[in-house]
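Issue: copy button drops trailing tokens. Both records pasted manually instead:
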Amino acid sequence: GKTEEYNGSGFSEVNDMNTARGYMGSAGTQTAALAIGGLGPSTYANVESFDGISWSEISDLNTVRRGTGASGTTTAAVAFGGNPGSPPYFSGDTEVFIILALVHCILSML
């Protein structure tokens, strides 16, 4: 999981994600971001948070998915749809992430 930051004129390498993958959902900003699910040697459920310096795994999706849509911030995000990697190849699942102080609540809706 190579991570590069843009400073307005060029990119520089920063700390890598814990799990290298592509086709993930993402939400947030350059200094507060989420990487959600994705595809590597297999389809992942990992959710990692970036604080502008390093990545930390904060949770897992209830369903492994790649190509997941996502929107929001690191404290309130939604992940929706995606491909679980096996039939049926598209998911209508929606998962909501709400993080308050040190409490991480995951609500799953079908």
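Record 2 (pasted manually too):
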Amino acid sequence: TDIEIVRGTTNTFDITVTDAFGQLYTLSANETLLFGVKRTPEDIDYIFVKSVKVGDNGVYSVVLHPEDTEQCSCCRYYYDVSIQSGDDFYNVIETSSFNIAPNITKKGCG
């Protein structure tokens, strides 16, 4: 699913995790949901990464704060969602585009 946000704003969105059979999946105690954004899919380094450990019945909320994107150029980036389990297992479960639009009325203008 493509995501579009306005640069330098607070954003919250939900990610639903399912297993191979389409059933809602709850992370175990040693698993972490990771949401990472890169300039290109081939880049090694992430612009930012958010980790989520607590969800509700397979639904996990990712919260972006203004400082996560306020220095980013307004353009298309790419994100992935993965599950990290300890140090030995890493599984990407979703990838798509992450678009940052300009903020016309900036924080502190009023």
